[in-house]
Design brief:
By secondary structure, the protein is an alpha/beta fold. The chain contains 13 helices and 13 strands. α11 links the parallel β9 and β10.
Length: 342
């Protein structure tokens, strides 16, 4: 297209009349939301000089929502990064204008979760949280649902049949992928350690099921030890793994939730030879360093940006439609990182 894009070019690209583009641009008479969005997209794609003004006018007419998010451990790098992605997804939503209200639980105690959830819910149009699956929390969710407030489970499912939908990765596949790597990469069969944050985390339970199922089906020559609960604690994971590493019988280890830093510090302290196949989650600076040192074999990474964007879109949809389904699941693909892929 030669020269500066004109209003006629925008109308043609959007498949509407020039009068319609003029109404969107100048805020004259109502224009259907999908039509206005087509005009805005066409203007932006063409580099139309008033594309920014059109976007501002469209945004000014959007409804205003406050969405609440309850995450874990405010000092955790993973959850701080997740909070940033949630704030960004809310700020950039094309469906509404609003703010993200974000809080964190310090512990996994259901009473703390319910207390903080209640505070968020009182000022939000919809809420989403990372939480253990516990009857006390399910009861709180049922109470919020009775008031018409949409509630979403995030990363680990809970209150199935009550909450609106789950948004996260397929945790059964995550567990099977970790088992596959250990079975394929171990120098010889041996004992395999498995850490979960809590038996109440549905996501960790699914990872354990997938993990054990893979070994039963494909690698029965390995011995998967009794599952260890680390409360997603660095210190607890470190202390539990130290003695196991010193026996020299460990062929592999999977930290299915938080606490991977503790496993890495234990490996650095003991320096076992050979090093067992270690799989943990989330590609952070310490995981990169541990893979470069040959201490960690694989990292399974949660796609925070796509999860945040999908979650915010689903929450806005639930607010707009005013209806809930209770059975929805939105799985986002996780990524796998190896030392040679860094």
């Amino acid at each position: 297209m030669a020269g500066r894009p004109t209003i006629n070019d925008v109308a043609k690209a959007a498949g509407v009349s020039v009068a319609t583009v003029d109404r969107v641009l100048n805020g004259r008479l109502p224009v259907r939301e999908d039509t206005a969005r087509r005009v805005g997209d066409a203007a932006a794609a063409l580099g139309f000089h008033a594309a920014g003004l059109i976007a501002q006018r469209m945004r000014a007419e959007l409804p205003e929502y406050r969405l609440g998010f309850l995450l874990l451990r405010p000092k955790d790098t993973f959850y701080r990064a997740f909070a940033e992605e949630l704030e960004k997804a809310v700020a950039q939503s094309a469906r509404f204008r609003g703010a993200a209200a974000i809080d964190f639980t310090e512990t996994l105690a259901p009473e703390e979760t319910v207390r903080r959830l209640g505070r968020l819910a009182a000022k939000s149009k919809a809420v989403a949280l990372v939480s253990p699956d516990h009857p006390v929390i399910a009861e709180a969710v049922a109470g919020l649902k009775a008031k018409g407030l949409p509630v979403f489970s995030l990363l680990s499912d809970f209150a199935t049949g009550l909450r609106d939908a789950y948004v996260g990765v397929d945790n059964l596949k995550v567990g099977r992928s970790a088992a596959w790597m250990i079975a394929k990469a171990a120098r010889k069969p041996g004992k395999v350690a498995l850490f979960v944050g809590s038996h109440r985390f549905h996501g960790h339970e699914l990872r354990e099921i997938g993990f054990r199922a893979y070994f039963r089906e494909h690698a029965p020559e390995f011995t998967v030890l009794e599952t260890l609960v680390n409360d997603e604690s660095y210190a607890t994971t470190h202390a539990m793994l130290i003695d196991m590493l010193r026996t020299g019988e460990l062929a592999g280890c999977y930290v299915a939730g938080g606490g991977g830093e503790g496993a890495i510090s234990a490996l650095r302290e003991v320096r076992p030879d050979p090093v067992p196949v270690v799989v943990c989650n989330e590609l952070s600076a310490d995981r990169r360093a541990a893979m470069a040192e040959g201490l960690v074999t694989m990292v399974i990474h949660t796609p925070l940006q796509p999860i945040a964007e999908t979650l915010v879109a689903q929450m806005a949809l639930a607010v707009e439609k005013g209806e809930t389904h209770g059975g929805g699941q939105h799985f986002l693909p996780f990524s796998i990182h190896l030392p040679e892929s860094l």
